[in-house]
Amino acid sequence: MSIQITPQAEVRELTRLERCAAHSHIRGLGLDDALEPRKGGSQGMVGQPKARRAVGVIYKMIQEGKIGGRAILLAGKPGSGKTAIAMGLAQELGSDTPFTTMSGSEVFSLEMSKTEALTQAFRKSIGIRILEETEVIEGEVVEIQVDTALNKGNMDKTGRLTLCTTEMETVYDLGTKMIDALQKEKVSAGDVITIDKASGKITKLGRSFSRSRDYDAMGGQTRFVQCPEGELQKRKEVVHTVSLHEIDVINSRQQGFLALFTGDTGEIKGEVREQIDLKVAEWREEGRATIVPGVLFIDEVHMLDMECFSFLNRALESDMAPVLVIATNRGISKIRGTDYKSPHGIPLDLLDRLMIVSTEAYKPDEVQSILKVRCEEEDVEMAEDALELLTRIGMETSLRYAIQMVIAASLVAEKRKSAEVEIQDIKRVYTLFVDVKRSTQFLMEYQNEYMYNELGEGEDEEDSSDDEDSNDEKPDEAGNSSDVAMES
Ligand SMILES: Nc1ncnc2c1ncn2[C@@H]1O[C@H](COP(=O)(O)OP(=O)(O)O)[C@@H](O)[C@H]1O
Ligand SMILES: [Mg+2]
To answer: Which part of the chain is the AAA+ ATPase domain (predicted)?
Structure first.
């Protein structure tokens, strides 16, 4: 089987708008060259200096391509910036390093098995930089001649293309396809173009300097280039970076019609992956490909079960493993699907391999700075005293609740035609939307009027009821007896 590396169709990527929005103010880790957190917040990052320093070290190691197969656990209370720090790392690494984000609960999908979902996530996080030499024809267009002839009712186009370099000139015969391509690219005499010999793809590099005086009026974006030197035919090195998963998808699509039925990718056959791994190993030996280990970030990792954890254990040992970053807000709690309790809800054998970075609760001035950054991000003007009140609310309820109040308060302010959010707007929103504490209190008072109310039966509830960001912030009285809340 020959392995194909360039996608025929665009590989569709799922972007998670919702989560991006919550962290859209994060533009990096905010570290200086010595990997020290810059004073007073930078790149949207505030406080949490220890964790940022630690992740900075990881960043450096990844960037130098030195590590793979390591795992880092971000542990801390809800809303202490674990996801934010991971997003900062992603931003810092830039688009050249694969960074895959998923939530622990995502593996429980009906379309594929848990291990398949994790395998795909792992392989999305490993980039392969492939060096290819292609033959191109590069020269300045001297003349394009097209003859059309009517042949059995079809328009047949034939033609000749004259290309030159500073040293030589050659005439090429053209078929219909090439003529169409030239016309599509609007190539005319005086353009400097390259034609990929294998694919026939035409790229316009610009207009030749020698023609710059032919026309008086030309678009501002016209780029002038030198007429190429030497031979018309050249070898060029091109570099593609694709993820292992992309290579998997491209090569399994060709394989069978089944891909049509199981959504976009479905499960990818083990044999396909094996062959691809062999091929990649071959390319590496020949010096045609290098591995770019990226990052796989699994948020809310306590949602994984025993099977997934043991898969992670093994996957980390593969020689093409990415760096695994996981995050959890659990203390000592049950490992999903078992009755065993373990720190962070993670089995001890995996914990043993982790470097643990803990995030700390924010101080009032940090909460205030984060809220300020969010106001800027959401284009909200806020009065000084209103911000102070919001900070107090953030300290007493939760940072997330306060962040969510920003946009709501600005809408309330807008309604009374004020350009600035003032205390009264914050107060109004505070009465309109209750936070978890008040809601719980309400539930305690009026429990009998609700369905499924189990308070007082003394049973601790299953983890699976809360998955993501929405209701992490359970106060202790709301049934957290099985999970020891994270402090310190
Ligand atoms: N250090 C920080 N600097 C800037 N924004 C932060 C910081 N920590 C948290 N945030 C913001 O606060 C909100 C909650 O933080 P998040 O990272 O989701 O918490 P966690 O994942 O630990 O539960 C997010 O909108 C996040 O972007
Ligand atoms: Mg989070």
So the answer is: 68-361
Would you state the pLDDT for residue 446? 79
Task: Provide the pLDDT confidence category of residue 261 given band limits of 50, 70 and 90.
Answer: very low
Ligand 1 near 44 CB (within 6 A): yes
- Per CATH, 127-286 and 364-438 having the same topology is answered no
Residues 174 and 28: their CA atoms lie apart, in Å, by 51
Cα 40 versus chain centre, distance: 27
Contact of 157 with 181, CB cutoff 8 Å: no
The ligand with the least distance to the CA atom of 373 is 1
Element (H, E) at 440: helix 436-445
pLDDT tens digits for 198-249? 888 888 888 888 776 665 555 666 788 888 888 889 888 878 788 998 888 8
Could you tell me the pLDDT band of residue 455, with boundaries at 50, 70 and 90?
low
Q: Where does 42-125+294-358 sit in CATH, by number?
A: 3.40.50.300
For residue 78, the ligand 1 atom closest to its alpha carbon is 23
Task: Say if CB 371 and CB 390 are below 8 A apart.
Answer: yes
Based on the number of CB atoms within 10 Å of its own CB, is 303 exposed (0-12), middle (13-18) or buried (19 or more)?
buried
CATH fold, domain 127-286, is OB fold (Dihydrolipoamide Acetyltransferase, E2P) (2.40.50)
- Write down the domain spans for the chain: 42-125+294-358, 127-286, 364-438
Cα(299) to centroid of ligand 2, in Å? 6
Ligand 1 within 6 A of 374 CB?
no
pLDDT in tens, 365-394: 999 999 999 998 888 899 999 999 999 999
Rounded Cα gap, residues 280 and 288, in angstroms = 9
- Percentage of the chain lying above the pLDDT 90 cut: 33
Confidence at residue 40, expressed as pLDDT on a 0 to 100 scale = 75
Residue closest via CA to ligand 1's atom 8 equals: 81
What is the whole-number distance in angstroms between the Cα of residue 306 and the centre of ligand 2?
Answer: 21
Q: Which atom of ligand 1 is nearest to the CA of 25?
A: 27
Give the ligand 1 atom nearest the CA of 86.
Answer: 17
What does pLDDT average to over the chain? 82
> What CATH number is given for 364-438 in this structure?
1.10.8.60
| Residue 308 alpha carbon to ligand 2 centre in Å | 20
